[in-house]
Amino acid sequence: MSKILYSACLLQVLAHATYAQTGADMLRKYQAAIGSFRTADYVVQRIDTFGNGQVWNNTGRVVLQRNPTSKLLGAAFLASRPDLAQSYFYDGTTGFELDDKAKTFILVKEPYEPSVLGSPAGQMLVEELLAIDPTYETVTYRRGRAGQGGVLRLKYPDQPALDVLERYTDVTIDEASGLPRSVRTSVVRGGGHWVTRKVLSKLRLNDASSAAALHNPAFLTAYASSVPVPRPVVNTSLVGKPAPAFRLISLAKKPVQLRDFRGKVVVLDFWETSCAPCVKAMPQLQQLQEQYGNKVVVIGVLLDPGASERAQGILRRQQAHYLNVVGTKAEESAYHVRAFPRYVVIGKDGKVLLDKEGGLHIEAVKSAVKLAVSK
């Protein structure tokens, strides 16, 4: 009986080792396959399932070509969303936002990668067709049924500081070509499960007409250049003004009024559960609260309808115990919240000392609080 058990265990260990080795081998084969072409032209269906259960289902087309000098994805590309009549062209240096209905384009001298990839047309780009993110922890391969293709799975490190966990990329590989048939990325963020699935079809490689579409883009002669009308500069700063009053309900279901904290320094942190910089700053805000004790009140103002339970999970995981309230459109408007996080520091006299938006301003918040407490 012991020999049988020993043999079974040995087979299991060997099978596991083979499985892991097969993952590494298949990754090398996959990288060789995607490295074998210069130009690709494909149709893609992208299905996004958000942490709140909302689903987006969009289809577009992309033509791309490797360009080692390119600052974005190492490629030049033309990505299109026919349903919206929107496209994005990038020549390796300069970006062009195309309105395919009005036949106009806006030149973008220094494209910002997150903005490009997050745009409607940019979302059609399948980055894994060009390269695999090398920061993975493990790679495995699971053979599929005949004709269905196997699945290459890459597990990426958790990012607890951002409340980002269980990061996986699953690439379904076509048995004949070795190229991706679909790519599925999944992550648990803010306690919710986020999944993006991109299904490729009509894939053509090294097609001359596709390359021509990038080398001699038709829009340069068929479309008119459009110069965005600059928005009027409006001073929305609250600095020096009395902080707008509010009466809100905390996540603990208790009423909270701003006026109750007159005589103390107040830090307002406007945030939402999908904001990574918001989550990253939470430990520092908690440290600020602990450092100054009852001289300072840190208040997180959640502007994320229906996300109270998810917010409490994030705060618990980040060990952030400072006061949090549920904000409304009224506070969003009164405090001119246009992006997250937005920080407002209020002095002991109830007047605003600092208002900044963006995660890079947490140090400015600390400095403002230090100065305000000393007065």
UniProtKB/TrEMBL annotation:
Residues of the signal sequence?
1-20
Gene3D superfamilies with a match to the protein in the record: Glutaredoxin
Outline the extent of the Thioredoxin domain. Answer: 237-374
> Domain of life of the organism in this record?
Bacteria
A GO molecular-function descriptor: oxidoreductase activity
Keywords attached to this Swiss-Prot or TrEMBL record, sorted alphabetically, are: Signal
Entry-linked PANTHER family: PROTEIN DIPZ, THIOL:DISULFIDE INTERCHANGE PROTEIN DSBE
Q: What is this protein called?
A: TlpA family protein disulfide reductase
